[in-house]
Amino acid sequence: MSAPTRIRQLAVAAGAFIVSGLFVVCAQAGQMKAPMSDADYQKAMKEIGPAFMALQRDNASMSHADGEKQAQLLSDRFKDVQAYWEAKKASDAVEFAKGAIAAADATVKASASMDMTTLTSSQQKLQAACAGCHMAHRDRLQDGTYKIK
User: What residues does 24 pair with on adjacent strands?
Assistant: First the structure.
C-alpha cells in the first residue's frame, strides 16, 4: 500500500471518528433541559409538593404503581429545577437538585420492586434535598407566599 493511500485511509478514519464524536456530543446536549423562567420554576415547585405528598400516600397504601408514577414525575421536575439553577450559577442548588433526582430515581426503582426500606430512605433524602434548597434559596413573604432569593 502506498503512503498517499495510507494517509487517505487515516484521514477518512479520523474524520469518521470526529463525526461520530460530534453525534455523541449532540445527543448528550439534546438530553439537557433548557433553563426555565422564574414563572415556570414556581409552577414546577407547585407541582412538586403535591406529587411528593401523593407519592407518600401511594406507597403507604401499597399503591406502588401510582407511587412509581409520582416518583418519575418528581425526577422529571427536578431535572427542570437543576437546569434552572445551573443557569443561575447556584452550585449548591444544583447539588440539591441532583440529590433530589437521585432520590426520586431510587424511589422509582424501590416503588417498582416494593422495597419499603429503600422507599423510606429515598423519600427522606428527597425531603432533605427540598428543605436544604428552600432554606438557602427562598424567602417567606408577609402574605405567606415565597420569593426566590
Answer: none
- Nearest residue to 49 via CA among 88, 112, 100, 93: 100
Cβ neighbours for 48, distance < 8 A, ≥ 6 positions apart: 74, 77, 78, 81, 130
Low-confidence stretches of the chain (pLDDT < 70) are 1-33
pTM tops 0.85, yes or no:
no
Instruction: Name the DSSP letter for residue 139.
Output: E
Q: Provide the domain count of the chain.
A: 2
User: Domain containing 22: what range?
Assistant: 1-31
Which stretch of DSSP H or E encloses residue 36?
none
* Residue 89 and residue 56 in contact, taking contact as beta carbons nearer than 8 Å: no
